[in-house]
């Protein structure tokens, strides 16, 4: 006996199939389908929205809706109830829309008399590709059974909405999107390096076309075979790949355990017992978990959900015997393009051939990105639309240094990439050679070289570079990559990880530096006119003192028994510094009074980023244990020039007399007061600029891990005294930039500034 839910769903699906098999156009068919669904479900109106241009919803078919609104974009993802359903990929049922805070009234829809609402997402590749909406004139609470029926129907409707015919309609909308004629696409780098190869679009997931089982025993047998085979293959692949040791191996081991989980297997088997095919049962098991966990803000659980998606897709491939793109690759250099990917998916390809990875939905904590990084594969993420636009078999170049992807690169671009790949290999060899040599200039001046870190994979550079320590830990990065504001314990674990990795080396923590271009996902955008000079950085943490106190507590605990260095960003005057420092001292006293173990020494410093403090150095330096210059912000304020405005990038140069004079003034003052002084802005990461800094008297430079080898090479090839004489001779120059002179000087004197 089938349940009433299944009976009703089957009835709708049968009719749906007969409408969709007809010869009418897709538009006529879908209008017929939504009408039929409305009638069967007792709704007064219905609509089918389709996702266009990645995140907009066009009304494609409607019943008892204003026909004029059809084929027009009505909602953005996140806008109104329908936008909310699409953005969250979750069903939303509302008894009376007029009292719902998210409801947005769209006059053009002609839905004034409708009260109740249910929106069900049409999902494919984990994304909402549309929304099915039903409405009633009366206030009506949709039952769990109705919801289940509609969700089952939505699975089949998704197939129709992703058909070829439908793509034509979507293309009309996409004509205006930039992706069509862009060759160079900007994304976000998740793993550094350059790669060139033939694209392979990673499509594993297949649609579930048959939902109800005809023979349960047969389905259970299919499941048993597929499950067993999948696990045998997975074990073999992961064992055979020579992966060394590290977090990536732990990730793959966890995945392997997940794939062989008995509880998961049982859930699928139970779903088969209730009447579903093996494929639909796998999907249903995933959906159950998704419904329970997708609302969680816990990053760990979200990652688990991600793993379950991947392992479900893998099992579905074994059930159908169709492995999508995976088996059809014969090029020797490939670039894999995926919407999303599981960590073990890389092992399905010959990973030694993978020259690059592009993941549309990638995030830095994503497991596949961590595995790819360990395998030295450059990864670029967040290029909207690339997955649906790209085709297998085309040449693609991946620039994991700056986060660009080139589709069909020209001969010149290809040539450039080949050079860059060769250069990088050379540099890496050189870095390895330099690792154990001191950062000493030719005339014997030791320069301390530190790292700037933020993401946890930056921590690997601490060992690989043999640096003197961490000169800037951008604590906002873990805040930015977290789904909720990390509490004290969570923060302690982040900071502790760094302290442990650093061992006896110096570590400088910077207090939370958010606002301006660094926004936290869980804080609304304040919407300021001039965010760079607005409520940001120390201004926020002084006003929201509890955040600062918690962070300081976490610093103190993570550095218990060791030396703690904390600096405050964007300090504008002495009063602000003293205020922040006092908060730290109070927290330190509190910890001591509680009898907790505290750092054996605490040094408090500030960043020099706002010009006003330079005019107060005589008062500030006696009160500070150290200073560090954030040349990125300092240059933006000295030149009154937005650091993120591409129109202005080359207009002013830090290698010019005004800026170099400011830098000289700061280092001389710091030396006068005997205060440790370093540079942690980008200037220290660029060899020619770092050369100028050493010439001005800087002995502490903090830079990105990827620049370390180049800067060290530069230091070892320069004579500090000679460069000092030369740079001081330029400080009265009226030129816009002194870069050409400094580059010629470096060439003439054999200084390595690659
Ligand atoms: C700077 O401004 O130079 C700096 C190091 O800080 P951030 O780039 O994080 O603003
Ligand atoms: Mg800054």
Give an overview in words.
The protein is α/β, with parallel strands linked by helices. Helices cover 45% and strands 16% of the residues. It is built from 28 helices and 22 strands. The chain has an 8-stranded mixed beta sheet with strand order 7-14-13-9-10-11-12-8. An 8-stranded parallel beta sheet has the order 21-20-19-18-17-16-15-22. Strands 3-2-1-6-5-4 form a 6-stranded antiparallel beta sheet, sandwiched between helices. The longest helix has 25 residues, at 216-240. The radius of gyration is 30 Å and the shape is elongated. Magnesium ion binds next to helix 23. The site of phosphoenolpyruvate has 10 residues, from strand 16 and helix 23.
Strand order of the largest sheet: 7-14-13-9-10-11-12-8
Q: How would you classify the quaternary structure? A: single chain
Helix content: 40-55%
Largest sheet: 8 strands, mixed
The assigned structural class equals alpha/beta
Count of runs of 4 or more consecutive helical residues: 28
CA(first)-CA(last) distance: 75 Å
Mean pLDDT: 87
Ions, cofactors, ligands: which are bound?
A: phosphoenolpyruvate, magnesium ion
Low-pLDDT windows of residues: 176-182
Please compute the radius of gyration using only Cα atoms.
Answer: 30 Å
General shape: elongated
Please give the number of β-strands: 22
